[in-house]
């Protein structure tokens, strides 16, 4: 009967939710344990390539990896989400920042894009501490670009806006990540000054096939231009994607086509590191080996 069918559905839904809760709880417990001694975490780096100097990797996005002794390699999306919900992201965030600083402190002039969660920016004084830690390593702020997702627009929190503007005043540049995935952020972009828009890969994926999506990306580029922002397109997987997005006029490309995220020592071994001069002067990166 319809009723039996209905209740069966409810049961299935319930057990599914319990499994997800259990999973969440296990990740939280293991994450908490891992943070006691900080082992098992590593930062990987993915090249971000300028469309004007396509042969040169001008910067890298740092992406967290966690290998748990009992759960194995945990999907970043998953453990970052658990860390955010449980509040562990504050402690984890400082640990990941230390890993990045240790990786790059002895390499000159490399620009790193670093993801920061809304929960971190909700902490009053976050920007100052962030800045102090980085300068403690002797790393200049112009080498770090902070990425925040469009989620912050939805929260529209006064502390977040304040911390973002302090970060920018300290000399860090700001990128709005996953742009176009949900919330209308145009008003927010007028209120909080960003430097870069990162177009989400869901638009990139379809631009090559769909004229409509290509036009949407083109209008995002137009918006970026009028707000004096640069554009990075994420999720470039094929030469067709690269050609299409370059044709539309984005400034930087990122994706598996140019390179998957790899440990820092692999980046160095690949000799993909380039010196970036004149970053402060003129604002245009002049690249050379
Ligand atoms: P995100 O910041 O948007 O990072 C881009 C994601 O797309 C990365 O996933 C990257 O590996 C993946 N990606 C890059 N190129 C391609 C491509 O060509 N095709 C496809 N299909 N995917 C590509 P990842 O490393 O799994 O990270 C997922 C998300 O987890 C990140 O999305 C970011 O929101 C979050 N995350 C990662 N590391 C950190 C971190 O250190 N701190 C914080 N707060 N969040 C982080
Ligand atoms: Mg990102
Ligand atoms: Mg993104
Ligand atoms: Mg994302």
TrEMBL record:
Coiled coil: none annotated. Residues 24-275 form the EAL domain. This is Diguanylate cyclase. It comes from Puniceibacterium antarcticum. The lineage of its organism: Bacteria, Pseudomonadati, Pseudomonadota, Alphaproteobacteria, Rhodobacterales. The chain holds residues 404 to 692 of 692 of the full protein.
